[in-house]
Design brief:
Structural class: mainly alpha
Radius of gyration: 16 Å
Oligomer: single chain
Order of helices and strands: HH
Shape: elongated
Distance between the termini: 20 Å
Number of strands: 0
């Protein structure tokens, strides 16, 4: 019966992936000189990292 159980970590890995993607986009935008786009993508990356941390803490406590 336990072999059919799905772990909590299966669906939560996307936030960290997208945070890294937006961080790389922010670095590229800053290198090109688009500071507005770099700021927006950095904020999105920061939000995804915070969501990832919150979900990781909740998963560890459960």
């Amino acid at each position: 019966m336990l072999e059919f159980a799905t772990p909590l970590q299966v669906g939560g890995g996307g936030f960290l992936y997208w945070a890294v993607v937006f961080f790389v986009l922010a670095i590229i935008a800053a290198a090109v000189g688009a500071r507005g786009v770099a700021g927006v993508t950095m904020e999105i990356a920061r939000i995804f990292v915070l969501i990832f941390i919150i979900l990781a803490i909740v998963a560890l406590l459960l």
